[in-house]
Amino acid sequence: MNKRKKITIRILVGILVVIVVGIVLFFSFRESLLKEAIAKITNKMERDYDAKLSIKTAEFDGFTAVKLTDITLVPKNADTLFSIKKLSTSVRFLPLFTGDMQLGTLFVENGFVQLTKKGNRKNFNAFLKKEKTASNQSSGNNKRNYADLAYKIISQGLNLVPTDMEIKNLTFNLDDNGKKAKIKLQDLRLADKQLETLINVQTNTFEQNWKISGFADPRNQKADIAFTNRDTGAIKVPYFDERFNLKSSFDSIRIKVDNISKSGGTLKIDGTSSIANLIVNHPKIATKDVLFKKAGFDFHFVLDENNIGIDSSSTAVLNKIKFHPYLNLNTEKDTIYSMNVSIPKMKAQDFIESLPAGLFSNFEGMEAEGIFDYRLDFQFNKNNPDALVFDSKIHKKDFKIIKYGEANLSKINAPFTYRAIENDKLQRPIFVGESNPNYTPMSEISPYLKKSVLTTEDPSFFSHHGFINEAFKQSIIKNIKTKKFSRGGSTISMQLVKNVFLTREKTLSRKLEEILLVYILENNRIVSKERMLEVYFNVIEWGPNIYGIGEASQFYFQKHPFQLSLNECLFLASIVPRPKGFMWKFDNTGNLRNQGVVQQKYLTNLMLRRGVLSSADTVFKAFPVQVTGRARSYLRITEKDTTVVDTLDLDEFDFGG
């Protein structure tokens, strides 16, 4: 036997001796080690979380299994957080030598975990506090490596999932000031990588029995699990209906994880998920149930030192719609959020038929020809919001609407009856046609009003096709900076569709329908721009129960729309966003407040710079705005009004129209 072999044998013998000695020491002192470990945990619960942990008995069972009975955790002056009658678990021995702790088996019988909130007091509040650790206190210059962090969390989490598990009668209780949900694991078994469960769910509004089953291999980080209802009917989502007024249900959910791997500093997570017949109902989404018949996601998550994202090779499916989303957060230099959505060429009719029922009610029954593709590019730099990128492009071929749905867009070309909706109530009917004495064709509206409203509401109305990417971009930038929805990007086309074809409800459904209807209206030559503007001037609200410019010019100035002066037109344009609040623009003498005067000067100068007005148009600019119609009764005039109303016949002057 040569010298090298002898050395190798001695090393192996030494390692074996160390292992044997370790095992002997472990078995000699394991009971005291267990008691010491429990004491440390108990002290930590009391010291850091002001909670009392009690365990009636704790002992080893076999080689590495531990049996515990009557385990309870009770926060001070709060409801018990959990109580378990029997718990038995074992740790896989060999991985301990590499620093990993992996549960081998877990048996739980008879217990509960509960989260309660009574008033503002929560029994779990202490456990939400962030511990001050060295990493928390370290300099903010130390960046997190997303791949390492995520892989560590996933690995440690899966190591705590036993390969053999049985849970009987474990209940999860949630009580949020009387809003309750109880989920009882009557029986959960994981054996030979096969998962089977029997779950009972009770809330204040329903009771159901659920089933989770499938393949689960925590050690190889793979799974294929299905979530279904053991009863008839759809699975209802508990608690959210009472807490958030969100009602939701689905027939089944399937989640499959094919790969979790880390190589070269990059973590990849691949898999698929799907949901069938998802129903969502919330007042902010739509006024009726929204149905997603079939939705799926073939996902490819990628994380590295500086990025968290969904790779563009991922595919999302909604009925017949397939698109490739790309999402990414990059922190290498700045914090940059990126998003790309790409819909490959598809039939327009397939797209319409794939729209979720209830979310696009006005498209139900619509038929179309042709094909299209779409791409959206978005990028936001947190440290430089003005550099925001927003680019939305659609390419169509032979696209044509051959049958309208609920919203008959062609009606706008003929006389029709318009009824505004305020607070869910239909207002008086307004006939949009010449038989209405207040109806005013574009030829009888002061050119100043047309110029003023276009300047304030939509300067490029006659050149765009319903949307202005730059307006959307600036709207997003301002909303991000102010951290609230302080600016919209609506064009006159969008306002017209909202007024004539849709309700005033503030829902996601209405906004999405508005966008699609505007695109169809503007890109299919359904109506001319001149007709759109004419209808717009005759239906929008100009004051309390005042609709159309014919009523507005009389209400404010006792004039025909053609007689309006430049200042009067500037005033009317300024109140379009908030017509019911017009009275606050005037002081207690009936004159425009300084802010209103400044606004008029700004708009006038803007129109002069753009060439919309000439200097000749501003000859009578010094004439103040004097409200003489019924609107004057709304003003808060407290001093004696000595204003002399100019009764000069304005028809004899040329206002540059």
What would your notes on this structure say?
Residues about 95-100, about 130-140 and about 640-655 have low confidence and may be disordered. Helix content is about 25%, strand content about 35%. The protein contains 13 helices and 25 strands. It has a 21-stranded mixed β-sheet that branches. The chain has a two-stranded antiparallel ribbon with strand order 22-23. Among the domains are: about 310-405, no CATH class; about 410-650, Penicillin binding protein transpeptidase fold (Orthogonal Bundle). The chain starts with a helix and ends in a 48-residue tail after the last helix. With about 650 residues, it is of the alpha+beta class. Helix 6 (about 445-455) packs parallel to helix 12 (about 565-575) and helix 8 crosses helix 10.
